[in-house]
Amino acid sequence: YWDYGAYFSDNNRWCFECAWEVANKVGGIYTVIRSKTGVSVNELGDQYILLGPYKEFHARQEVEEEEFSYAHPLGQAVQSQREKGYKIVCGRWLVEGNPQVILFDVGSAAYKMGEFKQEFYDTAGIGAPHGDMEVNDVTVFGFMVAQFLADFRIRAENYSD
Fold it and tell me: Which secondary-structure segment (H or E) carries 119?
């Protein structure tokens, strides 16, 4: 049933897809995500938002930057994260369906990596090696996304457009 998100919008339902390969070609997952964006937008419309890391080289080629309205919970949540010092780029991914994307620059939150790793250990008992850049980047990305989603949820609970 493809109504371009009318049902989901009317019921304040959202679908966030989070992946390291959103607008960031690294391997096969990029192809999988790209292959389903058209169908996802047909069904969910602008209630479908992809979350990924900001990689300037790829973003410049694949994303048309576009800000969310500050009156909208997405715009408010993005602004709230930016006020923490996080660099976030919003726009439309130039693939089938032109889904909305929110890209998080992990470098802008790297100063909190120690805090994030400590919370990860205290909460889940999982340690992360200090010098592993991939682990560091994914840890920071995960915490940035988690904070964004928590903030968005609070703002979106009573939203209607």
Answer: helix 113-124
Instruction: Calculate the alpha carbon distances from 157 to 6, 13, 68, 101, 137 in Å.
Output: 17, 10, 17, 21, 30
93 forms beta bridges with 63
Residues 82, 10: Cα–Cα separation, whole Å: 28
The two structure tokens encoding residue 110:
């790297």
Cα separation, 53 vs 105, in Å, equals: 6
- Residue 51, both tokens: 């979350």
* pLDDT of 6 above 80: yes
Position 33 confidence tier, pLDDT thresholds 50, 70, 90 = very high
- Can you give the pLDDT at residue 158? 78
pLDDT band, residue 61 (cuts 50/70/90): very high
Contact between residue 133 and residue 110 where contact means Cβ atoms under 8 Å apart: no
| Predicted pLDDT at 4 | 82
Integer Cα distance of 90 and 142 in angstroms: 17
The single-letter DSSP state of residue 66 is -
Q: What DSSP string runs through 81-118?
A: HHHTT--EEEEEESSTT--EEEEE-GGGGGGGHHHHHH
Let me know: does 6 contact 45? Beta carbons within 8 Å.
yes
